[in-house]
Amino acid sequence: MRYLIGRPLGAVAAWAAGTATGALVGSLAGETWPALVAGGGAGVLLHVGVDAVRGHRLMRWLRGGQDSGAPRDSGFWGELAYRIERALRLREHQLAQERAQHAQFLSAIEASPNGVLLLDAGDAMLWCNPAAADHFGLDPERDRLQRITNLVRAPGFVSLLQLAEPPPQPTLLSDMRHAGTLSLLLRRCGPGLKLVLSQDVTERERHDAMRRDFVANVSHEIRTPLTALSGFVETMQTLPLSPPERERVLMLMSQQTDRMRTLVEDLLTLARLEGSPRPAPDRWFALEPLLAQVEARARALSASRHEMSFPEAQGIELAGAEGEIDSALTNLLSNAVRYTPEGGSIALSLRRLEDGRLEASVSDSGIGIAREHLPRLAERFYRVDGSRSRETGGTGLGLSIVKHVAQRHGGELVIDSTPGRGSTFSLRLPPARVRQAATEAAAAAQRDAAARR
Questions:
Q1: Same domain, 219 and 185
Q2: What is the pLDDT of residues 290-314, one digit of tens each?
């Protein structure tokens, strides 16, 4: 306001200065009044001229790009230029912050594993992140502004877009271009805009199916021996049995009881493996005593019906859980005994691979397994021939236990089999969990000798 008032005051000051100058000149020339008038007018014109030049400089700066600083004049125009420049710079700073926040927001959406697809009122694609492009088979640049139903023709997806009111719950679709199951959630946003959120739930659905199968299989496996036991008990209660018949019924009841106990023990073993921390990498144990125990169990289970061979440990030590390694090798040998006909051969072998891993393999001359079954053999309760597995007394959990033990020790279970030629199951452990006891002792002796020197 002071500059709005200052402008006429400045003109008065210029007129007064011009009048005083004219009076001085007029007194010297003898013409006082004309000089006073001329001097005052000249002062006012000079002020107006300078003011116009300053205003012109400000207007020229405003018409330009405002890349350079505003004119640094004094007075009204200088103050006005300063305030305009300050407002412009503040606006530019706010716009830069908003652009940065917008870029961060888009970057976060693009990095999301969930798909985000934005459609206009005509169902044309406005924008999508990489996950949505992968789910729907789209190109974010090429397919922009294309009608989405021309690009994605899955009936379930088209029906979802045509609904007058989107369902509040996600819709599961498996007929998309994506090889799996997608969970789609449709929401309306803004004037006519549609937001499609997609999530790949293939793994979740697979795990849910495995869990349902697991519960169903456990129920079936436990119900079978319970039904048999119930029948035997009813037989003993209602029928007069001779001593030999009674002994036979009791033997069968004992077998079914052992089967249930084995199943429960295997389930508890799996639960313990899944719920406990990984074995420590610095707890070493000798492999030789463990192999002796495993060999004794395998020979007792075979009852001299198979030709069996076992290796020497050769001073090998392993780092990890001794009980878990024992369980893994015992399960591999038990499977070999069960599925190898009488007179067949079973061999446990040890070898160090080129990369330093230890491979413990159980080979047999049994019936073999078709190649299409190999990827699923380690699944819980998966059986190539369910009736044969029950006849041999297997629970269907042995290879699952072996696989979990291998993974917990940083290793893997490798299966190779040919129908009619037998199978080989290999437990491979990483180099960090294998060492030679003699070598380590020699190295320790050398370090002690070096320290004494």
A1: no
A2: 999 999 999 998 989 999 999 887 8
Length of the chain: 453
Q: For residue 391, give its domain range.
A: 284-438
Nearest to 415 by CA among 305, 317, 406, 352: 406
For residue 364, what is the domain's CATH number? Answer: 3.30.565.10
Residue 22 domain flag? yes
Do both 327 and 416 map to the same domain?
yes
| pTM score, whole prediction | 0.55
Give me the amino acid identity at 242. S
Do 135 and 229 lie in one domain? The reply is no
Q: Are 274 and 307 in contact (CB under 8 A)?
A: no
Whether 215 and 188 share a structural domain: no
Which CA distances in Å does 397 have to 271, 333, 348, 361, 429?
A: 12, 14, 21, 19, 21
Euclidean distance between CA atoms 109 and 103, whole angstroms: 10
Highest mean pLDDT of the ranges 111-120, 257-266, 346-355 = 346-355
Is there a single domain that holds both residue 65 and residue 7? yes
Total Cβ atoms within 10 A of residue 360 = 24
For the stretch 389-434, pLDDT in tens is: 455 556 678 888 899 999 999 999 999 988 888 899 999 999 999 9
DSSP string, 134-156: HHHT--TTTTTTSBHHHH---HH
Rounded Cα distance, 30 and 19, in Å = 15
Q: Which of 176-185, 209-218, 256-265, 337-346 has the highest mean pLDDT?
A: 337-346
Decide: 83 and 62 in contact? Cβ < 8 Å: no
62 belongs to a structural domain: yes
Q: Tell me if 103 is assigned to some domain.
A: no
The two structure tokens encoding residue 394: 């297997």
Q: Count the helix, strand and coil residues of the chain and give each as a percent rounded to the nearest 5.
A: 60, 15, 25
| Mean pLDDT of the region 131-138 | 88
Residues 298 and 368 in one domain: yes
Query: pLDDT for 190-228, tens place per residue?
Result: 788 888 998 888 888 887 877 777 777 777 777 877 888
In the chain, the number of structural domains is 4
Q: What angle do CA 201, 203, 209 make, to 5 degrees?
A: 100
